[in-house]
From TrEMBL:
Signal peptide: none annotated. InterPro entries: DEGP_PDZ, Endo/exonu/phosph_ase_sf, Swc5/CFDP1/2. This is Uncharacterized protein. Gene3D superfamilies: Endonuclease/exonuclease/phosphatase.
Amino acid sequence: MLSKQAQNSLTGWESHTLRIIKVSFKTKKEGISMNVIQCYAPTNDYNEDVKDQLYDRLQSIVEKCPTKDLIILMEDLNAEVGTDNTGYEDIMGLRERNKNGERFANLCAFNKLVIGGTIFSHKRIHKITWTSPDHYTQNQIDHICVNKKFRRTMEDVRTKKGADIASDHLLVAKMKLKLKKHWTMGRTTSQKFNMAFLRDTDKLNKFKIALSNRFQAFHDLLNGEGTTMESNWKQIKEAITSTCHEILGHKEHHYMEWITVDTLDKIQERRNKKAAINTSRTRAEKAKAQAEYTEVNKQVKRSIRTGKRK
């Protein structure tokens, strides 16, 4: 999902297997693009050949990015990157390292990518990106990296544990680099009409009357001599769009009309359960709160599906 600003700056994207996607954005720095490579790596006990293939593909993607561009490598890499940063001082801080972490650290060292989550000082709770189902084992296995050339554009990396998105991937990086609108030839900004107003009987009747009057005004012209299919189409289009503009108006925001009050209530309940998880003082309290959150999250998804069908 992209914000409107990011959407306007998008210059292209590429899908590389089911585990890797690369997205490019235009920035306000002249001639410099931002290439975001998002990856979901296999777990530590996965088949070695599969992991080798994934890291080979990652290497190939990074190599193809222009050296002048900003590269951001991010997401769930299932890699613990180490307590010993000997030989990796330029790209990482101190942490525990597993086999996936060795692969990941080597990839970053070879391509001069700085591992953001290891170089900023935070409390342990703001570094943890994964907690086991028993709530005992906790690791830092999600990472956000930038090429060393743009190290100063990264201001912070930490988890936002209060985010209510039903996911444990809560790592966020704060960057200084600003995005710029990317316009392509023939691209226009389209506005949508408030079609939801047609559900209102009074609005619907006004719309019918106004449209009927417009059609009546040029009825004879449509059937006159010298008219073409193209000219008739333009007249009909003008009648419909002008009526929509007058009666319905344009949408000021993107409304998800299928969201019901019941769904919004359940989303608020889920938000409260998330807060309960973060304020739990014992492991038992946290396990109970997590179970309740999971159940409410299922109810939210069920309510959304029901709303969309209506």
